[in-house]
């Protein structure tokens, strides 16, 4: 038998690897010994057996994540192994839960939704019948009702919650001084000591010091925040203290003047549901869109920067943010994950610390990967790589995609590993254009043939991965659609698609953040490429019969749908060009197959919009459609906010539901052309102003995703 080394009491959770000798993902164990090969021999704990070890087993050290005894006890009370791993992937929240003290304000999942309450006791669950047993730990929580009263109609027992049921933590020292619950109930509470076992770690000095010096810190913080923090803007993370003292947290989604109000107000999307809040409406007017009971409107003066992410300075020294535990490695031993189903998209993806975490100018790459792989199956089919020929960089990409689709979050470390493998040091540190990255991605990583085959009448076909719009500004109106831009560019450059692309990436006529030809562009939700196919039958623009001529000069004609491509049958071509203003046009003949009858109906070939990349001041974000529902849009920003400074902090990625985009794009072409972008909702306005790449997939080849 292989020699083993005894170890002190250590606990762990299995985070990857297939089941092996008793252990599987999400299981909690205690290290009994370690082999010379680095494998751990341990006891396996089960929540179903009230904390008693079931049996021993062996697991590789690299397949585990170390836990303190307290962490292991908290996670053991979480019966779902997937929920344990999900909580572990939210290090900020899990760290705060591990440090909860009596009367800390928390928000918990409840049958009625998300409810605020006060932590009263830490409860031990299970009997310790022998030395190897491990008590499970849960929290007794006393609810706070909608009027901020303590709900104590039933004196006992208080409801018990696991760590996975806590969705937000507000430390007791952050509740403002002078907090007074109605009827004086807060002051009359019996402050019983939280039931803790001896092995529970002491509260960190950071919490103790904060509690002891609360008054002094509150004054200092208010002074500093009022003079030093950056002006609040849309996207800022803020906190608001209600009249009764409850602190709520959220993100500013709208700023402006409400009807009937004189000063500037803020529309805030809260972290959880609160009775009396809306879904983004105030009165009868909608200002932004979010889940129901999460939109709060208050004067901007009532908002302060979220103190959970504010680092104060003390005597000229900056306090570094608390180090967060590393995100556990991802088990990619299973089959490839399909795109996120529609039924799971909002719950899995929407929120902060969701999507792909940005790091060192990676936003171009983050937004591109999220657009291509989060919800579309198009590239899954066209980039199948045999396992025996797959390169390491392809494996790294596969892990990123699977992690995004299974966990809804990819840490910056995973993406940095991918950037290091792209073959050029500048991919690791510098900002790139998504077009450059897409070319490298498809050619080197996915080893794909060009997505497009373009042909002109005078040249042979050429391959490309993206289609760059080139045209004269005078050919378009002030706010063109992508359909109009694509047709004008193809006609001006005498280009046609040899076949219908399975994926079409259209680059708008702009160059990075320095120049854009049009102030606003409307992404067409459906792209009709029938008239852009080489040697394909086309119908007359006037009568619908088989077209035989095409005219570039007719493109901007204001009397015939300006911006749309024009082709005619022989009769209509003659009639249209007898007009004095069109007599100098030079229509060109179209190739027509001899076996195609003049009256033959021409089938339409369309492509559907599934993502849009946008750029604003050198920062890339994306809009992604996650189902066929016209309102099923998500907004993704890999660097929506930041915790800490440039040296020791980290970026906070965020995904937001954006149904208002569907409301806007569902309008008719005429209504879209008449719309005023400056009055559009914030994210819609951003899309119209900053569109850089529009991604389409073929309606004929796109397969519907399952709903569950």
From TrEMBL:
Xref: InterPro entries: CAP-Gly_dom_sf (IPR036859), CAP-Gly_domain (IPR000938), Papain-like_cys_pep_sf (IPR038765), Peptidase_C19_UCH (IPR001394), USP (IPR028889)
Start and end residues of each USP domain: 354-668
A single GO BP: protein deubiquitination
Known catalytic reactions: Thiol-dependent hydrolysis of ester, thioester, amide, peptide and isopeptide bonds formed by the C-terminal Gly of ubiquitin (a 76-residue protein attached to proteins as an intracellular targeting signal)
Domain named CAP-Gly: residues: 256-299
Keyword Hydrolase recorded: yes
Superkingdom of origin: Eukaryota
Alphabetical keyword list: Cytoplasm, Hydrolase, Metal-binding, Phosphoprotein, Protease, Thiol protease, Ubl conjugation pathway, Zinc
SMART domains: CAP_GLY (SM01052)
Intracellular or extracellular location(s): Cytoplasm, Cytoskeleton, Microtubule organizing center, Centrosome; Cytoplasm, Perinuclear region
Cellular compartments per GO CC: centrosome; perinuclear region of cytoplasm
A Gene Ontology molecular function term of the record: cysteine-type deubiquitinase activity
Entry protein name: ubiquitinyl hydrolase 1
Lineage of the species this protein comes from: Eukaryota, Metazoa, Chordata, Craniata, Vertebrata
